[in-house]
Amino acid sequence: MVDSFSNAMIRDQKFRDTGDWEKMELADKKNSDLLKWTFENYGYPSIYKMGIKGNDNTNLYLDTLFLHMPGSNDYKYIIQKLYEYIVSGDCPPHIYSTLVDRYETTKNKRMLYGDYGILENVDSAKLEPNRKAIGLPGLKHNLKITQDRYIFKNLMEN
Question: Is 53 helix (H, G, I), strand (E, B) or coil?
Fold first, then answer.
């Protein structure tokens, strides 16, 4: 799995800066196929199964890989599986919520969880129950966590 996901991470980023949409879509399709195969054969590809570093010190940031799946033909399957993995405790809820929000902001100009980008006129009262349902902290609590991480990071760097 480490070999496959190391290649997937490299493939995912290879054409992002070039603007070659055709090659990006092909890379996303290959990565989508890898995710489906992994789900069916190994379950969720967690850090406990793969670690955080792949071959040649490649970062295995699944967040990034999943963020490029909204345009995939397999999007609905991937979302369904991720939800199952949230329920089982294998997938962090923020991966699911960010992917859903990216899809929803792109297709429907709305957010369901408040985890991707910024939209005007977002009703936090509608987001809070969705966040709670999948185990995410509330928006205010999440903001506090983000601020604390920033402060801690600055303390560690100085």
Answer: strand
